[in-house]
Structures are given as structure tokens and as C-alpha cells.
Amino acid sequence: MKAILFRILIAILTIRKTSASAGDYSYEYQNCYHQCREFNCTGTGGVSIKESLVDYYGQTFLDKIFMWSCKDECQYGCMWRTVDFFQERNLKTPQFYGKWPFLRFLGFQEPASVLFSIGNLLAHVHLLRKFRAEVRPDSPCFKLWHLFTFVSVNGWIWSTVFHTRDFPVTEFLDYTSAYLIVLTTLYCFCMRMVHKMNTLFKGGLTLCFIAFYYGYFLYLSVGKFSYSFNMKTNIATGILSGLGWLTWCFLVRKHRPYYKLVLKFYCLLALSMVLEISDFPPIFWVFDAHALWHLSTIPIAFVLYRFLIEDCKALRKEDMNETSSHEKLI
Description:
The chain is mainly alpha-helical. The protein contains 13 helices and no strands. The chain has helices spanning 2-13, 22-25, 27-40, 49-57, 61-65, 70-88, 111-134, 142-164, 168-193, 199-221, 227-252, 259-277, 289-321.
């Protein structure tokens, strides 16, 4: 087992992006980058590597903390030279290594996405405290939604780390943690629907989900990271979860008026996805579509947790009345 985990770790650490973009593929960038590395990162010409970097790029203490290397500084400096080159000729702003150019701030590679990822993390922590304050611990699905929050917090932690510094390992953990949130949403839906079933059945269902995620994780860990597979898996899982909740909304619309909350959540989530699939150069070189999508998911979480609170309260009330009534709602 240790040998398998070691091989997975090595595979993650050696993943490299191979797709080129217009910016990093251009002659202007390549010429600048190779000259920068030769002059600053090899020690030729009698230049001190450390002093040259600090003097030329003004590298701060935080830049060093977040491991901006000589190579990274050359990429960053040449990126902006190339952007200026394109704009002076009225050409479209190019991407570099599949990303838009972002202004670095306090060592953060994508400062807006970092800020909004932290905002999502804090929102989930706050909403869990609100959930615990309003829902009794003996309510059905009480622990289930704790699991959802913990998985969400983990996902936003790795989102923060990845947008702080884009390394192969931080990218991998961000993508796999994000998918874990999507898969956990589907898992929570299934467990909510079968919450009255026996422990053996629910345990078997849980093992199926764990086995599926384990296979997904292993598949992406070995060899070249498959962006298309990851995207398709996320979309398919998200659609299953969404269709499940929408079907539930239709079936319970007459006796669970709070169904409108989860319906509102999925409508808002669908609208927010317009930002996620959009693609435009960052506004002020800071706010791109992906960062704005992270911002939009913060208020949407409040709608979801309002539904979770109301649902848990309703389920507990039904459990208390079950001895005097044989009617069981969905």
C-alpha cells in the first residue's frame, strides 16, 4: 500500500502542462524568457543570481515565501513585456500556459480568486455554525450535512492554495477536491432520500461512492492529467445531482413548501455557471471570469444552508409525529 501511495505522489509531482498558448508561444516571449534565464538564472556574465532578481524584479519577502523562483520571475516579467508588445500592435491580449496574465499581489498569483476562495471557506464555516445553532443534533441528516461542510471547506482551502501558486501538485489537489464537493453533493442527496433505510444499506451505498472517488483519484494520478475527463466527470455528476433534487422538488411541492429554496439554489447555481464557462481578459488584470464565479458562489451558499436547516427541522418533526401517524412523506 505504501508503495502505491508513493508512486501516486511521484506521478502528481511530475505532472506538467504541455499545451502552449499564444503568449508563451510567441517569439517576443520566447526570446525574452531565454535571455532572462541565461542572464539571471545561470550565473553567467558575473551576475549574482539573487541580487539580480531582487534589483530587477523587486522581489518581496512574500514572493520568496510563496516560492517565486528565478524561472518564475523570468516568466512573470516576460509575460508583461509580451502583453505590452501585443497591445502596442492592437492585438488581442494573449494567454500564457493556458492562463490570462494576472497582476501579482503579496505573492499571490491570482489575488482575486484567492480572496473569493477564502470568502467561500468562511461562508461555509459561518453557515455551519448557524446550522448547528438552529438544528438539534438528533435531527435526521444532521451529521450528513456536517460532512458536506467539511468537504466544502477542504475544497476551498485547496482552491486558495492553488490560486496562490499554481504548481502541478496544487492544481491536482484543487481539481480533485473540487470534484469531491460535486460528488459529495450527489452522495448527500442519495443519503437524504434513503435516510430511513437500515444502516447496512446506507453503508453499502457509502462504500460505492468511496470506491468510485478512489478510482477517479487514481485515474487522474497516473500519467498525464486529463482535463477533459475531469470536466466530463464533473458535469455528469453535477447533472445527476441537479436532476435528483429537481425531481424531488416536483414530487414534494404540495407538502414541503421550502422546496423552493433548493430550487432557487440550483437556478442561481446554473446562472453562475455562465461566468465559469465565460473567458475574457482580467478586469484591471485582477478579476477574470473564474474569480467572479468564485465571488458569485458565496451568497448562493446561504440559500442552500437555509434549505438544509428547514429540511432537517421538518424531518425531525415528522419523526416525532410518526408514532401517531402512519403517513410517511418523501
